[in-house]
Amino acid sequence: MNVEVTPTPVPAPLLAATPEIAHVGIVGAGQMGNGIAHVCALAGVGVTMLDVKPEALDKAMAVMARNMERQVNRKLISAEDKDAALARIVTTTDYAAFGEADFVIEAATEKEEIKRAVFKTLIPHLSPSCMLASNTSSISITRLGAATDRPEKFVGMHFMNPVPVMKLVEIIRGIATDEPTFLAVDALAHKLGKTTAVAEDFPAFIVNRILVPMINEAVYALYEGVGSVEAIDTSMRLGANHPMGPLELADFIGLDTCLSIMQVLYEGLSDSKYRPCPLLVKYVEAGWLGRKTGRGFYDYGQTPPRPTR
Ligand code: NAD
Question: Which of the following is catalytic: 34, 135, 137, 140?
Fold first, then answer.
């Protein structure tokens, strides 16, 4: 069945009040921060990217250069597009560099206390009109917005990993988010070539509310000995036609991020069906966080990666 969806037209006065986003600040230069910087810079948006670790900034620049080179080789962009995009990105460890930003996206580690501390340090450096977003996978947008001086200009902008490839951005309205902010961020997502879905501000929103409990269930299946890592991933790849098995996907997302999302679901919805699997907790305690640390449900020191159980 083909259902045609006609978007509700935005009233002209509201459209006129929608702020233009020409310069974006990004806090956190990890897998998501570098992907967001990549797509913004290619769309002609100026980017200032900050991390607490200077080495994370160097790594992010190298990853973006490599990923854009791949796009050049596939003739998706030209070499000039790549050079111009990389030249639009400035890296820093100093929040004072965010004075010019129209919009700042926080993409730091998925821990509420870290995100709150980021906003506290960031806010004194922002222009009064600067809008704010969090790329959080699960934490309440209303609560994060309330920790800032501008909850009406605060929104959830949830990109998918890897950002240059994945088409969706979930946009989450906090209870105080105003319409011009929502529309400006929605317009930015479209400018980046993404499709948006609007999610209400409930724990983990839409994608992760459905996806991460499935991953947690796969870890339970491993923990209970229902199947090996290989059997579980092969089953879901070939039996459910998923492009990646759930354990492979967990390694790709980061096991720390998966665990944080399960904890937010468990606490936020007070339902035991969301309890994180003890094996997932153990992997995170061991520092086996998946691809980003070289080991998770697979050992990435081997080619091809070898299951660790
Ligand atoms: P990551 O571990 O790759 O990167 C996090 C970065 O934040 C690191 O470079 C770290 O140095 C930096 N950081 C930590 N504390 C900081 C601080 N106080 N100030 C500035 N930088 C700080 O994590 P990630 O996968 O990029 O996730 C980032 C955010 O994006 C999280 O909120 C996560 O839930 C969300 N997210 C992740 C995915 C995914 O698949 N990994 C998908 C969508 C959204």
Answer: 137
Residue extents of the structural domains in the chain:
23-199, 208-307
Q: Is the pLDDT of residue 1 over 50?
A: no
Q: Which of 144, 257, 265 to mutate to test the pocket of ligand 1 (most atoms within 8 A of CB)?
A: 257
The question of whether 137 is a catalytic residue gets the answer: yes
If one looks up domain 208-307 in CATH, what number appears? 1.10.1040.10
Smallest CA separation from ligand 1 atom 41, residue: 253
Instruction: State the catalytic residue, choosing from 158, 216, 248, 260.
Output: 158
Count of H-run helices and E-run strands, the chain: 12, 10
Q: Where does 23-199 sit in CATH, by number?
A: 3.40.50.720
Sheet containing 131-134: order of strands: 89-92, 46-50, 23-27, 103-106, 131-134, 154-159, 168-173, 195-199
Tens-digit pLDDT profile for residues 222-247: 999 999 999 999 999 999 999 999 99
